[in-house]
């Protein structure tokens, strides 16, 4: 397994979720390698050993000892805080306030996340840790701002005017503090293709606004390991995930081990691939979702969201392959 650190050189417009990152990598590979290589990569996802899998991007911050503290998604356990044990109204109110703040916590440190994987921490334990040390669970290294832009008339290189009015638009952009950035995990037997794609993306940029210098990162790739339990009854996904029909059937037999959020993903094909085409929407499990273990290597599927035809010379796929880790249910 490798960890890819993205050290920002600009602001970022596009949220780098696993489906987006995979699409960027595949597109970069298609610009470097022959079409037959891309087809071979796509076909590998039909088997148990895809050429590579990617997680979503999560933040890192500088650690007190130097280096980086990697932050992982807070597991989406069902929080079950006991209010009946409160000795009075004030204590109950304080606990409710802590619960409200706890819901907004998005990340936990690698140390806490590893304890969760091993089954030594419950959601209530994480709640107590966050209540007693809120600074340890806060993250303020990225600021999101709405930035206003002018639409440029490419014939005159002045502000485009329609009906004698300038054309303004806004975008949401992420700005990073010094020494803060993003990381994602990647694993598989053919990571040489990912290395080539990342070298290209380091120069061209990640996501939207690259023509005006957005999404620029210095890329650093290192070996990475995280302890997973040898015996596990659940998995936690570090990516967006679209299950197959038989996986859904398997989950239905162990509903008590499921705790998750769903998200509907929809968008358009990147302009560097073709004229604008809308992709079919996909309903997916979100990062941090905890699901029953089906004791398999690969979870999820590629979904064809647009078929070739007209001015689109190839099929378009959406990545629903799960980047998951084994998790043991705590013994209460």
Automatic annotation (TrEMBL):
Keywords for the protein's UniProt record, in alphabetical order: Antiviral defense, RNA-binding
Signal peptide (UniProt feature, chain positions): none
Start and end residues of each Csm4 C-terminal domain: 231-326
Superkingdom: Bacteria
Pfam family, one: Csm4_C
Family: Belongs to the CRISPR-associated Csm4 family.
Name assigned to this protein: CRISPR system Cms protein Csm4
């Amino acid at each position: 397994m490798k960890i890819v650190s993205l050290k920002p050189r600009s602001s970022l417009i596009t949220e780098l979720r696993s489906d987006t990152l995979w699409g960027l990598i595949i597109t970069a590979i298609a610009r470097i390698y022959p079409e037959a290589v891309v087809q071979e990569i796509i076909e590998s996802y039909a088997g148990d050993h895809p050429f590579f899998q990617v997680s979503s991007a999560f933040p890192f911050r500088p650690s007190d000892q130097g280096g980086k503290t990697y932050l992982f998604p807070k597991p989406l356990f069902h929080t079950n805080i006991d209010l009946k044990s409160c000795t009075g109204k004030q204590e109950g109110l304080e606990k409710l306030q802590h619960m409200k703040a706890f819901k907004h916590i998005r990340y936990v440190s690698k140390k806490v996340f590893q304890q969760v994987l091993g089954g030594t921490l419950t959601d209530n334990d994480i709640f107590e840790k966050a209540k007693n040390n809120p600074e340890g669970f806060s993250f303020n290294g990225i600021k999101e701002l709405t930035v206003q832009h002018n639409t440029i008339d490419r014939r005159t290189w002045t502000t485009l005017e329609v009906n004698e009015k300038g054309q303004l638009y806004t975008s949401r952009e992420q700005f990073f503090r010094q020494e803060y950035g993003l990381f994602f995990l990647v694993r598989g037997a053919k990571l040489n293709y990912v290395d080539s794609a990342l070298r290209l993306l380091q120069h061209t940029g990640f996501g939207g606004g690259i023509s005006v210098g957005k999404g620029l990162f210095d890329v650093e790739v290192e070996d990475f390991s995280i302890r997973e339990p040898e015996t596990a009854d659940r998995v936690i996904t570090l990516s967006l995930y679209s299950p197959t029909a038989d996986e859904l059937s398997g989950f239905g037999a162990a509903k008590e081990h499921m705790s998750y959020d769903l998200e509907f993903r929809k968008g358009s094909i990147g302009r560097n691939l073709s004229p604008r085409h809308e992709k079919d929407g996909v309903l997916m499990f979100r990062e941090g979702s905890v699901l029953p273990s089906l004791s398999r290597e690969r979870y999820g599927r590629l979904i064809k969201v647009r078929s070739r035809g007209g001015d689109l010379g190839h099929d378009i796929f959406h990545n629903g392959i799960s980047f998951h880790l084994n998790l043991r249910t705590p013994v209460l």
